[in-house]
Design a protein that fits this description.
The radius of gyration is 28 Å and the shape is elongated. With 315 residues, the protein is mainly α. It is built from nine helices and six strands, in the order E-E-H-E-H-E-E-H-E-H-H-H-H-H-H. Helices cover 33% and strands 8% of the residues. It has two domains: 12-30 and 41-157, P-loop containing nucleotide triphosphate hydrolases (Rossmann fold, 3-Layer(aba) Sandwich); 168-287, no CATH class. The strands form three sheets. Strands 1-2 form a two-stranded antiparallel ribbon. Strands 3-4 form a two-stranded parallel sheet.
Length: 315
C-alpha cells in the first residue's frame, strides 16, 4: 500500500483552521442513507489533552490513567488520547481501546504482538492499528517491504524465552505445579477434581513422580559432569518427595481436598503466588504455589531511596 502526502490546503471553520480532509471526515456524522433515521457515524469531540503511560510519571498517576481509560465516552473523566511506551504490552485489558498508532517497529516480534493486541479486544468493536515506519531504519524498511506476508504469520517469528532449566528460582516457581500435574494425570484414580485427598491411599505409588522429575533434571544438560548431574538429581528428588509428603499431611488434616477451586466447598491444594489467602495457610500448604500467568509470580516490592546524608528522598 502506497501512502501519499495530503495537500496542504486548509479551510477555516468556526474560527479554527482545518485541513480539507479533516473537514471531510468532520461531516461524516451527518451522512445518512435514504429513509435512515441515524447514520453509521457519530459526531464526537475528541479531547486533545493526552495522558501518559510511561515511566516518566509516578505509579499512582499510571493507575489513575488506567482507571480513566475505562470510563465510557460520555463520562467527563474519560481519556481519549494516551501516549504510551511498551509498558502497555501487558496488563492493559481495556475493551474501550479501538485505535493504536505504533511509532517504529519494536525490537522483538513478541513485544509488537503484545502491544498491538491491546486494541480491538471486544469482538463487537473491532480495532485499528496504524504502524508508522521510519524509512531511514533498515529494519523498519524490511518490515514495510514484507508487511502483508510478515503479518500473515508473525507468530512464527516470536523469540524464544531465555530460561535456565532447574535453576533454583525456576524450581521454586514450577516444581509444585509439575509435581501435582504428574501425580494427578499419571494416576487415573486421582484425576477427578475432588480426588486430591486420595493421596492418602496412593502415596507409595506416587514415588514414580519423584523419579521422573529427578531423571529429567539429571539429563537436561549434557555439559554437566556426572557428579554435578547426580547431585542436582538428588536435590530435585528430595524436593519432590517433600512436596508429596506435605500433600499427604494436608489431605489427612483436611479430609476433603481438591486441586483448585473447581467444584463444591472442599479447600484447594494449589494457590496462586499472589493469593491473599496463602499467608493464612500452614507452612506445608504454602509450598503449593502454581502460577496461572507468568506475570503474577512476584509480589510488589517497595523501594526507598536514601541519599549519602542518610535522608530519604521524596517521590
Amino acid at each position: 500500500m502506497k501512502v501519499h502526502r495530503c495537500a496542504s490546503t486548509h479551510i477555516r471553520k468556526n474560527g479554527k483552521q482545518r485541513g480539507k480532509h479533516s473537514l471531510h471526515l468532520y461531516g461524516y456524522g451527518a451522512r445518512k442513507r435514504e429513509n435512515e433515521v441515524s447514520g453509521l457515524f457519530a459526531n464526537r469531540k475528541i479531547d486533545d489533552e493526552p495522558c501518559e503511560l510511561t515511566s516518566r510519571v509516578s505509579t499512582s498517576k499510571v493507575a489513575e490513567t488506567k482507571r480513566r481509560l475505562q470510563q465510557p465516552f460520555h463520562e467527563s473523566e474519560r481519556v481519549d488520547v494516551v501516549l504510551a511506551t511498551n509498558m502497555i504490552s501487558v496488563g492493559l485489558d481495556i475493551t474501550r481501546l479501538g485505535l493504536m498508532v505504533v511509532l517504529g517497529q519494536p525490537k522483538t516480534a513478541s513485544e509488537y504482538i503484545q502491544a498491538t493486541s491491546r486494541v480491538g479486544r471486544d469482538e463487537n468493536k473491532p480495532g485499528l492499528v496504524v504502524t508508522l515506519l521510519n524509512i531511514h531504519r533498515p529494519r523498519d524498511r524490511s518490515h514495510y517491504e514484507r508487511f502483508q506476508i510478515w503479518h500473515a504469520a508473525f507468530y512464527r517469528d516470536v523469540e524464544a524465552t531465555s530460561v535456565t532449566p532447574f535453576s533454583p528460582r525456576a524450581v521454586d516457581r514450577g516444581i509444585a505445579g509439575i509435581t501435582v500435574a504428574l501425580a494427578r494425570l499419571g494416576n487415573q484414580n486421582m484425576t477427578a477434581p475432588i480426588r486430591a485427598a486420595d493421596i492418602t491411599q496412593h502415596r507409595q505409588q506416587l514415588d514414580i513422580v519423584a523419579d521422573i522429575i529427578a531423571q529429567r533434571a539429571e539429563m537436561h544438560d549434557a555439559e554437566l559432569d556426572k557428579a554435578a548431574a547426580q547431585n542436582l538429581s538428588c536435590q530435585i528428588r528430595s524436593r519432590v518427595t517433600d512436596l508429596l509428603n506435605a500433600w499427604e499431611l494436608i489431605a489427612t488434616e483436611k479430609g476433603q481436598l481438591q486441586y483448585q477451586q473447581e467444584v463444591g466447598s472442599a479447600p484447594p491444594l494449589l494457590y496462586n503466588f499472589l493469593d491473599p489467602e496463602l499467608k493464612n495457610q500452614k507452612p506445608e500448604a504454602q509450598k503449593f504455589k502454581a502460577q496461572r500467568s507468568l506475570r503474577d509470580v512476584e509480589p510488589v516490592v517497595n523501594l526507598w531511596v536514601v541519599n549519602p546524608n542518610n535522608i530519604e528522598e521524596e517521590e
